[in-house]
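Sequence in, structure out. Go.
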Amino acid sequence: MIKRRPDPLIPANPDLVSRPPRPSDEVGIDVYWLPLGAGGWFVRLNGRIYEAILARREHRRPLDLYHSALEVRLPEGRFIIENAWPIPDADGVARGVTVEGPVGSRRIARFRVFRYEVRRWRDGVIADVDEAVASPQRLSDDQRVAHRLLDLVGFLPSPVWGRDELGTGEMWNSNSVISWLLAQSGLPMDTITPPVGGRAPGWLAGLVVARREPVTGALPGPRRRFATRLSAT
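Output:
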C-alpha cells in the first residue's frame, strides 16, 4: 500500500536544520550513517538482539547496525532525504513527504502508525544527527546527479517495510530506499559503505531492485506497481 504526495518541494520551518548552510558547499550529496536506534533504547536493544541472532546463524561476529540518510545541496536549497517510521503526524506536506508505504502488512496500513514515509524535506532535519558515525560522507559534487536524485524520490517503489516482499533475500527498509536512490542516480555503489565494523541491513534489497528495473534517461511517470492509494488516517 502506498500514499503518494504531490511533488512540489515545499519549504519547511527554516529554523530546523541539521547543520548551518556553508556558502562554499553549494552543491553536494552527503550520506549520514546513524547507529540503529540512535536516540531511543527500544529500537537499539531490538537491533542488537536481531543482529546477535543473525550473526550466530551466519557464524560471524555481531556488527554495528546503521540507518542511512542523505543531505542534498543545490543552489536552490538544501534537502534531507530519509525514510521514517512511525509517521509523527498527518502533516506530511511540511516534511516534504512524497511516498508512504505499509509496515509489516498491507492489511493494517490504513492506520498511520503502520505506514512509513519517505521525505524530500527542504531545510529539514536528520534526527539525532549528532550521533552519526564517520559522517557526512561526500558522494558527489555533480549538480546533474543531485537533481536526478531529488527527482527520483517521487518514483520510489514502496514494498512492505520489514519484509522481503520483492524476493531480494533481504527485508525492505530505510537503507533499501537510500541504496535504490543512489544506484538509480548512477553513483558507484561499490565505494559507498557503512563505517568500519558495521553494516546497513536492507542495503542489498535496494541494489537488487535497482538492477532489476533501472531508471534510464528521462524519468517515467510515477509507478504504482506495488500498491494502491490510501486515504489519510
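Check: The first strand starts at residue 3 and ends at 4. The chain has four helices and eight strands.
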